[in-house]
Design brief:
The structure is a homotetramer of 344-residue chains. Chain A has helices spanning 15-26, 41-51, 59-62, 79-88, 103-116, 130-140, 162-166, 171-187, 279-300, 308-327, 333-336, and strands spanning 6-11, 31-37, 69-72, 92-95, 120-122, 147-155, 191-199, 214-221, 226-232, 240-247, 250-254, 262-266, 269-272, 331-332. The first copy, chain A, has 344 residues and is an alpha/beta fold. The termini of chain A are far apart. The interface between A and C is medium-sized, with 33 and 34 residues.
Chain lengths: 344, 344, 344, 344
């Protein structure tokens, strides 16, 4: 039975949708690209043609009998309604992050998923990066002992266009959200308090609508761990992605890889290659492994590799970070999330 | 015109043939897997089925109008006759190394290729590895100045079965041949003398038929560079593949990558990940880049990325190394290769 | 004239005094160990004997005509009165950090130094560490462009005895003070706001008197740079000392050295040596370079390598961090330091 | 008893003698600089004055009752007669390498040492380098299993003056001799055959008197290990000193340290610091540890850390390498050394 491929309809043929469709068509054993849909039919057609896959003329068609699951790769604002439609059609769901920037909508979507009994996997791919995962494993397996400090660096090689930034939901919801997920993933402990600081150093225009491009966040976890995150929209030397966990028995770290392992040494010192500049160069393997985890989960898994709750918590943290930045004080998660009773 | 894909028939569906077929089917823009052929039809059928490609019932069929080129991935003994057939059918040729272990047959094949005017690319994939290539580039672009010493380490993670070893042609023809090519590639200068030493340390039975599993080779190049190569059939820590070029202005080195960039530091020191153990983990990118070079060459290239001459020279060097080991003395290339006049 | 050695009296023959006396006796060209004094005469005698140096029976004797300068290596509580005595005796002064944990006393001492026209160098030795200094230089020389983020990690290999901790002045005054100095040194910009978080994770008893052993501090500098500091009293893998400066043109980092450069690679991965465990193993070179800077300053320098103001600012920052931790909010430097007018 | 310092007379106040005298005066617990002697009295006087040590007016005086041991740091040609004088005076002996370039003289000196019952330690300091020693230890303790390949790189930052080269005894006696010692030290197995190749690439004038500046040597050890050595008189990037041992269970390597651990990463890749350029920057610690070993041996040791036999064997290897280079063939040690019976 487990040899029957999971047929996955890709919704959205933009940059991230193209990537997922290509991976599903070529690189994921056990998965099949069922069809491609986009509100812009030409985009879908081009992608479908390139990959030799069917095109779906509508969401309904994509959710028809020829698919077992969907990959929601559309713009954030459409995620919740697509989750609901897919769940009601009985399809398992892979949804890109963030589920929504509106916490109420997230909760509504998760309720529908629960009601319909379908499986949901949120696209926090970095959990599947082997180097980051080695840090998580070192914590989970006790190699570093009691976790005391966690440090996450996440810096983009360069800022997206100002138009994108305007509609991004802000740095915490757009960029730090990956790090919020990583903090929960590595520490295996919920965050109870968030302190955020930062400034618009790269793109001063961000100031106008209250956004920043250079950020520092301090998290307090329930287990006592303190996490620091630093972000920048512009690291000229590449896509800087690091995680470091420190505890009573040692330290585990995920360092930046270089694009190859050739070096040079001359009279003025040593030279090493650049680190990857693009998220695909850095994270392709994590996306493939994420899809393998999805396939395993869809077939027979009991627990989502990245559950709805995993998709929701970073959104709460992003909202707390926004308030912290505005009010210049640490903010309790319980101030944002009514599900949490009182502050600890 | 350059958008028309090159249709490539894969001959041989063993381990290396499977890899090439899969890369051609999925990873090489501009290439198309035309069909798959193997003397064992079941093997070909399984692979063709897996990749959704046609199966060819005979070499003649594979060389029919539906292919523009062939990838010769069969056993070494069949290379020369397949090269000749393909050349006479007007197909461009990718041939796995070594072309043959019989120098006269090599010369015969190269003559046919020349007569038929087809293009030939020999499968020395390591030239396309980005780290090794960075060493070659540092030499070619003058960054290390006058090349004086070149050092190549090439150690397999573990020995192949004794049955394979018996028919491998010996370590120099089977394994060092890649390093002989690398020496010529990096130094951009022909080798004029070979000295070889070694022993059967891993598999003592090799002694019986004059083969070794642990080897050191010293090469003198025409430009004065001295290259040392060391090989082992068993590096328990992985597939150790390094190149280092030293010259008057500096040193360029291709170091081993690790499988990921996660590390650990505890009371007893630091721990780093393993290096790749399998040739595919280490060299997939080089195979893809090699195919891209083949496609470019087949379409419009003037010079083969790895010409027939490049395929021939390492065979001569392997023969010289064998004689050096037997006679315990440095051997001039001119003693092996009648094309070369007298010793320098 | 510049060949006449500076004769330096060492006050205090405890751990740090012994080190300074030995360096002055053996490793600092241009310096001479004038004499050794300690309130425990036996301690002074043992050290003087070992180094073949005179013993001073009293502070007055140490400040007599046979010394040009003093190295104040006594307990923190005695620093200010010794600074005053030395200044009034016309001696140049090297004083271990912190000058005092009482800001008023610091100011009094600096006033006396200024009145007497002697030279003062505070013992922030890490400024002279070549790796840390390379980070400062990369900032100062523009190599990283506009400084945006600064990250300082400073973790001790293990906690001192609880008795020491009780009288240490707290982690910010005892340990983070070095990092406060480093932040000002690298950023070359004053700090205007401090946020501190932390807990007693290593030595829970610290909780009783409001101290912590695991700390995170966020600093805002006047130039817009945000610095994060993390500290622990226990890094089982050694004395972890790192600095990283990130800016618009790149990143400079001071990484941990290992005790030697030997490595091992086996079937389970690579192993690298431990990092230094003791401050002397890590920082001896910085102490020697600090003394060379002192000698140059004493002879002919116009500007102190680590001035009284450099000694004072980190004390203010430590006081701000203490208040931040208590009040759970970011604290402006201007709230602590009356010299600063209003909050920026 | 073991607290009485060993009083060591330093013979020779040139570059290496100055270094040893300074280390003995300041850095070696248990050792005392007894006096300094040089055939040029002014040189001895300057050094003695600088270190506050007595000057000896003659070798006889240096071998008088005020010394327990000698450090022979004079020119190579004088080593043997000084060894004999010191041995007859009952002094323990530290002698710089090489003992002599004349094997008969070496044997004569070792005989006198044996007759007089004094202790002899030859100055192969690299054995005491912690990184190189970690490689030896990995072999000795079985961590790498059966030793199969050993690789030693030893490249000077720049050639000495041509006048020095002329009287150096040739590269094998002057430079490779350290690597010959390292090969025996790490492999713990005698060398039975030597093959040498090389050329004058840096200083073509060397050709005139049969010397080279770029060398490759292949050694066969009695235990089956094959060692390759490569040397250059000019590594523009610094003093390149590496050792790598490969065996059935893993690989141990001594890599080059950098002068500090600061790095930079910019748009064009990473930059790392230079490696040490001068032997003292690289090997000071090894010299100190060598002296500590000498002191321990002189006080109570049974076995020399670097015995007369250890001093002799590399000389034999250098002679074999010279013959190999001249005759263009591998040379058995037994062809050089009459103590060895027949070729294995």
């Amino acid at each position: 039975v487990n040899d029957i491929p999971i047929r996955i309809a890709v919704l959205g043929a933009g940059r991230i949708g193209r990537m997922h469709a290509e991976l599903l068509a070529k690189r994921v054993p056990g998965a099949e690209l069922a069809c491609v849909f986009d509100v812009a039919p030409a985009l879908a057609a081009a992608l479908a043609d390139e990959l030799g896959a069917p095109i779906a003329g509508s969401v309904e068609e994509a959710l028809g009998p020829d698919s077992d699951a969907v990959a929601i790769c559309t713009s954030t604002a459409t995620h919740v309604s697509l989750i609901e439609s897919a769940a009601r059609a009985g399809k398992h769901i892979f949804c890109e992050k963030p589920v929504s920037i509106d916490l109420d909508l997230v909760d509504r979507a998760l309720d529908v998923v629960a009601d319909c009994g379908v499986k949901l996997h949120v696209g926090f791919n970095r959990r599947f990066d082997p180097a980051h995962r080695s840090v998580r494993d070192a914590v989970a397996h006790g190699a570093i002992g009691q976790l005391e400090l966690l440090r996450i660096t996440s810096r983009d090689p360069g800022p997206p266009p100002i138009s994108y930034l305007k509609s991004s939901g802000g740095i915490f919801m757009d960029m730090t959200i990956h790090d919020f997920d990583m903090a929960r993933f590595v520490a295996a402990s919920e965050v109870i308090e968030v302190y955020a600081d930062g400034a618009a150093r790269v793109e001063p225009a961000l100031d106008e609508w209250g956004d920043i491009d250079t950020a520092v966040v301090v998290l307090r976890h329930h287990n006592g761990c303190i996490t620091t995150i630093d972000n920048s929209r512009r690291a000229v030397y590449g896509y800087d992605q690091r995680v470091e966990a420190f505890g009573s028995s040692g330290m585990a770290a995920s360092e930046n890889p270089t694009v190859h392992s050739g070096t040079f040494r001359g009279a003025d010192g040593g030279h090493t290659p650049v680190i990857p500049r693009f998220f695909l160069d850095r994270y392709t393997e994590s996306y493939v492994l994420s899809w393998q985890a999805f396939v395993d989960y869809a077939r027979a898994g009991q627990t989502s590799p990245v559950s709805g709750e995993d998709g929701r918590a970073p959104i709460v943290m992003a909202l707390a970070a926004q308030r912290s930045l505005q009010e210049r004080r640490p903010v309790f998660i319980s101030e944002i999330d009514s599900r949490i009773g009182v502050q600890p």
